[in-house]
Amino acid sequence: MSANSADTGGRVDVVLVKGGRTKIRYPAELLSDDGTRLTVRAAWAGDVVRDFGFVRFEAGDVFTEYYWRDRWYSVKEVRDAAGGLKGWYCDITRPARLAGPELVVEDLDLDLWRSADGTDVRRLDEDEFEESGLPRTDPEAAAAAVAALDELEEKARGGGFEELLA
């Protein structure tokens, strides 16, 4: 096994880093790793229900998460306990890296939501992105993050979103 790939069927810890600190860490089942894209499955890792108004993440929800080593985002398919699709929550991140048993991603504050039926596509947390200071401290990373959000939004509105996950 190389530093860039892992055996499937194992466990990894997803480590979401924000502002240089671990925001959340949770165990996940590694479903696939083709050297570029990693796919994991995990139960909702929050302690409480997270109600965004347009979707609720709660106990029993299952996330199938797609991470890329060469893209500035991750896509999380969200299903309820009965298997019903709620939609996709997309994080704008630096490219993912697998470091031993840890899948590490750095959250860049921008997010996108796409409902299960594709009619609700929302850009999220653009204010947090500006407040993070990234556009001033690392303009190249900020530009890559905004470009990734634009790309995902275009795909989510009908330009090949599902093909990302195939």
Characterise the protein shown here:
The chain is of the alpha+beta class and 166 residues long. A hairpin with a 4-residue loop joins strand 6 and strand 7. The strands form 2 sheets. Strands 1-2-3-6-7-8-10 form a 7-stranded mixed barrel. Strands 4-5 form a two-stranded antiparallel sheet.
Q: Approximately how much beta-strand content do the residues carry?
A: over 45%
The tally of beta strands, per DSSP, is 11
As a percent range, the share of helical residues equals 10-25%
Let me know the average pLDDT. 92
Q: Which structural category do the helix and sheet elements fall into?
A: alpha+beta
Cα Rg: 15 Å
Q: How many DSSP helices? A: 4
Q: What global shape is seen?
A: globular
Strand order of the largest sheet: 1-2-3-6-7-8-10
Low-pLDDT runs of 5+ residues are: 1-5
H-E order: EEEEEEEEEEEHHHH
Described by strand count, sense and barrel closure, the largest sheet is:
7 strands, mixed, barrel
End-to-end gap: 24 Å
Question: Could you give a quick summary of the protein structure above?
Answer:
With 166 residues, the chain is α+β, with helices and mostly antiparallel strands.
Give structural attributes.
alpha+beta; 7-stranded mixed β-barrel; two-stranded antiparallel ribbon; 11 strands; globular; disordered N terminus
